[in-house]
From TrEMBL:
<keyword id="KW-0663">Pyridoxal phosphate</keyword>
<dbReference type="InterPro" id="IPR036052">
    <property type="entry name" value="TrpB-like_PALP_sf"/>
</dbReference>
<dbReference type="InterPro" id="IPR001926">
    <property type="entry name" value="TrpB-like_PALP"/>
</dbReference>
<protein>
    <submittedName>
        <fullName>1-aminocyclopropane-1-carboxylate deaminase/D-cysteine desulfhydrase, PLP-dependent ACC family</fullName>
    </submittedName>
</protein>
<feature type="active site" description="Nucleophile">
    <location>
        <position position="63"/>
    </location>
</feature>
<feature type="domain" description="Tryptophan synthase beta chain-like PALP">
    <location>
        <begin position="4"/>
        <end position="283"/>
    </location>
</feature>
<dbReference type="InterPro" id="IPR027278">
    <property type="entry name" value="ACCD_DCysDesulf"/>
</dbReference>
<feature type="modified residue" description="N6-(pyridoxal phosphate)lysine">
    <location>
        <position position="36"/>
    </location>
</feature>
<dbReference type="Pfam" id="PF00291">
    <property type="entry name" value="PALP"/>
</dbReference>
<dbReference type="GO" id="GO:0019148">
    <property type="term" value="F:D-cysteine desulfhydrase activity"/>
</dbReference>
<comment type="similarity">
    <text>Belongs to the ACC deaminase/D-cysteine desulfhydrase family.</text>
</comment>
Amino acid sequence: MKAPLQKLEDGLLQEQGVTLWVKREDLLHPQISGNKWRKLKYNLQEAGQQGHHSLLTFGGAYSNHIAATAAAGKEYGFHTIGIIRGEEHLPLNPTLSFATSCGMQLHYISREEYRHKSDPAFLDELQEKYGKAYLLPEGGTNLLAVKGCTEIVADMPVAFSHICCAMGTGGTLAGIVAGLAGDKAILGFPALKGGDFLRQEVEELVQAYCGKSYSNWQLVTQYHFGGYAKVKPELLHFMQQFKEQHHIQLEPIYTGKMMYGLFDLIRQGHFPRGSRIVAVHTGGLQGNAGFAQRLGVQV
Ligand SMILES: *Cc1c(COP(=O)(O)O)cnc(C)c1O
């Protein structure tokens, strides 16, 4: 599984003396997108080895992980069950309609119940209702997901000094940190407000996976645009311009915010001249149709 690196040509980069590549994880697979594919890979193997025929997982109504799990189940022969936060809205939005078309069985639970998504008793209850299944946590983050994400930085075809990645649960960043094992400078851009808690999450995942910590990574917490799935006109404008100039589609929840933040840091001279930066495009473009519908904006 290899994602190409695309070098960007931009006056700002020249002015600041930095080189920037986008790692096109969004091109890994047409339906099992980007980091969600990396996170599923070893979990699918494990589910098969354990003799499971079903995958059960959790997510919001626009979740990239729900869409990816549904598509992966279809492709690799697993029945899939999606436990969706909140009430059913018909017609189904594009994400859930896609998941259903892949054969995913959807069940809705209240926000209150959803808080128990990691409680063993609740997980037992779900399996009594819907049958025994291999459990994938929300966002797909577990240690096998971290293992899959270490491969984002395996065999990189260029020498680089910095790597940047958007964050939700922090599983992908943990994989990058583990994969680089102390090498390079790593910047994680939380897509949500108050992303400081992710320091602890990443630390714990890296410790559990590597048996040690690394200090060559940091969080850039100021580019959340008001919170998870919140946007501002300047973000949408930036994404539009970025697409026109570089022919790369971003999405507003994760990669748009990361790229906006990265360009802002470059503009501020945060990176020394000669820096060679890789920005990871973690995919997730399936969400754009639903996002545009919901907010009545173009993305
Ligand atoms: C889920 C997702 C992320 C966040 O990944 P985590 O491992 O949860 O931090 C980033 N970008 C995109 C496009 C995603 O779908």
